[in-house]
Every structure is written in C-alpha cells, then in structure tokens.
Amino acid sequence: MKRHAALRQLSSDHHSGLVLARRVSKLAADSDLAAAEQNLLTAWRTEIGPHFIAEEEWLLPLFARHTAPDHPLITETLRQHVMMRALVDEIEEGLAAPLLPVLHALANALREHIRFEENELFPTIEAALPKAQLQRLAERLSSD
Question: Could you report the per-residue pLDDT of 17-74, keeping only the tens digit for each?
Fold first, then answer.
C-alpha cells in the first residue's frame, strides 16, 4: 500500500512490529519464555514505546484538528495503546504469571493494532489532512 511520505516511517515501524510479534510468538511456542520476554521488552523500550509516543504527540493531535478529539479512530488507537502498555507493565513488574498467555496476548494485540492503523487509521488521516499538514507531520516525525 502506497503511503504518504509523512506516514512511511510509521508504516516501516509497523513492519518491524509484525516481525517482533512473530518472533515473540515463535519463542513462546518453543517454550523459550525468557528470550520472548527479553525480545519484547527490548523492542518496547527502543522501538514500540517511542513509536506510540510519536503517534500520540504528533499524529493524533494533528488528525484531531481536522476531525474531532473524540473521533472513534483516535479513541480506539489510544485504547489499544493503553491496553498494550498495561500488558508490558505486567511483564516488566513480574506480575504476568503465567507469562505465556500474556506474551501471546501482547503479540496478538500488536498484530491487530498494526492492522487497524494500516487499514483504518492511516488511510483516514491521509484523506483528512491537507497536503501542507501532512508535510508538517513528516517534518515533525523526522526530527524525533
């Protein structure tokens, strides 16, 4: 799917997220829970967490200016972010017992979230934002 330049980096991050979800699921299925947990937490700290922050600080507020702050796609994006953060917090704090279902839940949630953003959120944003605003978004995201 062809993405506006403003969203290409976020879409590229999504590819990395799908690879991570597959890797975590495979490691978990192979009963290598320690490796699955480590892969997940490392990627969360270095890639996924910063990606969520960029969406929440730049993408969603800009979209809200052209729709509404309570647009269903904005609220759903934030709901999914919060749910995944809660699962990561459980893992980080050692509260995910047993760990296996939490790892599977997070990998599945990440896959579903990426599909949601790629198939629903991003196309709607591309249609709603004027070209100048998409360019502004591209500049903001590239400076982070």
Answer: 999 999 999 998 888 999 999 999 999 999 999 999 999 999 999 999 999 999 999 9
Please tell me the distance from the alpha carbon of residue 74 to that of residue 72, in angstroms, as a whole number.
Answer: 5
Domain count, the chain: 1
CATH assignment at residue 73: 1.20.120.520
Q: Looking at the chain, list the stretches that DSSP marks H as alpha helix, in order from N- to C-terminal side.
A: 5-29, 33-43, 49-54, 60-66, 72-92, 99-116, 122-128, 131-143
pTM above 0.85, yes or no: yes
CA of residue 8 relative to chain centroid, distance: 14
Distance, in Å, from the CA atom of 86 to the CA atom of 72, rounded to the nearest integer, reads: 21
Neighbours of 10 (CB within 10 A): 21
- With the CA atoms of 88, 107, 123 and 137 taken in that order, what torsion angle do they form, in degrees rounded to the nearest 10? 40
